[in-house]
Amino acid sequence: MSYDPLEEVPVQTDIAVLSDLWNGLPDAEHIVRRAVAAAAAHPEVKPPADAELSVALADDAEVQKLNRDYRGKDKPTNVLSFPATHGPMLGDVIIAYETLVKEAAEEEIAAGDHLTHLTVHGLLHLLGHDHETEAEAVTMERLETEVLASLGVKDPHATGRTMPDGPHA
Questions:
Q1: What are the two backbone dihedrals, phi and then psi, of residue 95, each rounded to the nearest 5 degrees?
Q2: How many CB atoms lie within 10 A of CB 66?
Q3: Distance CA 141, CA 1 (A)
Q4: What's the pTM value of the predicted model, to 2 decimals?
Q5: Cα–Cα distance, 62 to 116 (Å, whole number)
Q6: Nearest residue to 163 via CA among 101, 103, 112, 73
């Protein structure tokens, strides 16, 4: 593989592949690292200098369990973010493979592009961004769009798509 400056991410990113389903997207870890690096490079996204991030590439069953246990929603979702309470650790981002692939197919986008979006979305949540109000949603969507554009990924909000975890969820 050739040198990629976006792999030099200021956020130490640990990736755990928790499901063999991710073999269907063999570049997933590279995609996640590039997404984190691009988000961290955005001038309005300011992770701490010693920031650490954990990303779990899971399946729908695991994400449904976490969604039920921690959010009271007994269904899978595409991405969950759990902020850390202290230290340089930002928190955990967990992404569900089957939901990601299903949504990508429905929206006629590449699964890798959707993984990029979900990674950026989850990281922005861990850095304090949200979309509970219209103003927050506009800001978060703009940041996502700018980060994704830096990676050559089309604006996911241009066609009226909602936030990965639902409008104002």
A1: -120, 135
A2: 19
A3: 32
A4: 0.90
A5: 20
A6: 103
- Encode pLDDT of 135-166 as tens digits: 998 999 999 999 999 999 999 888 665 556 55
Amino acid identity of residue 91, one-letter, is G
| Element of type H or E holding 56 | strand 52-58
Where do the domains of the chain lie? 5-150
SS3 content of the chain, % helix, strand, coil (to 5): 45, 15, 40
Pairwise CA distance, residues 52 & 11, whole Å: 5
Q: Give the residue among 33, 123, 116, 40 at the shortest CA–CA distance from 83.
A: 123
Token reading at 25: 């997207």
Half-sphere exposure (CA, 13 Å, Cβ side) for 168? 4
* 5-150 topology per CATH: Collagenase (Catalytic Domain) (3.40.390)
Contacts of 86 (CB under 8 A, 6+ apart): none
Rounded CA separation 42/26 (Å)? 26
C-alpha span between 78 and 119 (Å, rounded):
10
User: Is the CA virtual torsion 69, 71, 73, 75 positive or negative?
Assistant: negative
Give the pair of three-digit tokens for residue 159: 């066609």
Q: What one-character DSSP code corresponds to residue 14? A: E
- Read off the pLDDT of residues 29-55 as tens digits, 9 standing for 90 and up: 999 999 999 999 999 998 988 999 999
